[in-house]
Amino acid sequence: MNYNYKCQANRIATWVLRGPLTAILFGIALLHLECWLLSCLAWPWSPDHDVFATLARSWDAGVLPYRDMEANNPPVTIYLYWALGKAFGWGRTTPFFAFDAVLTASLGIVMMVWSRRRFETMLPAAVGYLWFLRYYLGLDYSMAGQRDWHASLLATAAIMAAESCFGRRGRWISAAAAAGAVAIRPQCLLFLPVLILIVGSERRRLEPPTAMGAFRTLLEWAGVFALVLALAFAPLVAAGVLGDFAHDFRRAAYGGRRNPLTVWIFFERILTVLWRWEFLAILGASIVSTFQTRSPFRWGGAAWISALLATVLYKAISPRQHNYLDIPLFLLLAVNLSIVVGMVLRSRETPAALRLAAVSLALGVNAHASLYTGQHHVNMQWSFASVEEIWYGREPIVYPNGYSGDYPLRDYEALLKHLRTKTDPQVSLANALAYPLALTGPTARLSAFPAESLAWLMEARPDDEDVFVDKLERTQNSVVIWIPSEFRRSRIAQFKRIEQAIRRLYEPDARVGPFEIWRRTM
Question: Who contacts 268 (Cβ-Cβ below 8 Å, separation ≥6)?
Answer without folding.
Answer: none
